[in-house]
Design brief:
disordered N terminus; disordered C terminus; eight-stranded parallel β-barrel; 9 helices; alpha/beta; globular
Length: 290
Amino acid sequence: MAASLQPLFSAMTFLLLIASLIGSSEAAGIVRYWGRGHTEPKSVSEFCRQEFATDVNIAFLEDFGSGQVPQLSIIHPRPSAADIESCQKHQTKVFISLAGPPSLSSVEDAEEVAAYIWNTYLGGQSSDRPFGKAVLDGVELHIHSGNTNYLDDLARALKGYPNVILAVAAECPIPDPALDATIKTGLVDQVRVEFFDNPSCQIRPPKDTSLLFRSWDRWSNYRGVNLLFLGIPISKDIAPEGGYIPPNVLVDDVLPYLKNSSVYGGIMVFPYLHHEATFKSMLRSYAGAV
């Protein structure tokens, strides 16, 4: 195999291993992102049919607070209601992922943003619904910088509406600088922690899991954590400061330990795939050669 193609095939193998292992457990999930990958399927319904996700984040809804109209920043055509509903019929939950920079100025401002999200993407009503009559399952707060004040109030307001699943994407050092107050509300259904690009709490090559497990245990017992996901990069290129877990180490060493936790939820694979079509083509070629 050409050296330049090895990372692509390894990443596809990585996803297949995760899907086969985690998919066998009703309690565990695979979280993925859609909307920013140049070679991922342009249709979110096609993305969901690949069966490598139980939860899909539409990434991202940006620039909210202080009277701004949040901007849906995806590179593909907007999904139709049929696209969203197709994912949901295949038992894939669909989230809108909020990214920075936020600029919430007050409790009332947070409540107004929550009302906008409810009416525009969830179960409310608005004359401007990008996905038509489709009702998304939840909201992810993917905030790592900017003005992080009042995010906990945003969480409270969102959870005040019926049937909203709330998730956050945190970094592994505790406390998370942006989302700690939000997590401590106890209202967050899924805490998805990025265990990479942070040397203090990630795996060390080739398979030293001590710092990763210590951080996982702290998160497992942390106030407000109801369901905990292991956020991992799909390749070394995604995490220049480290944290990539080879598939065999993930399957043989990491997941068996994590699954002992009562709050284990599954895996968040980060980020979107840039070479989805290439992965598929290579997989077909290798399958035919076996």
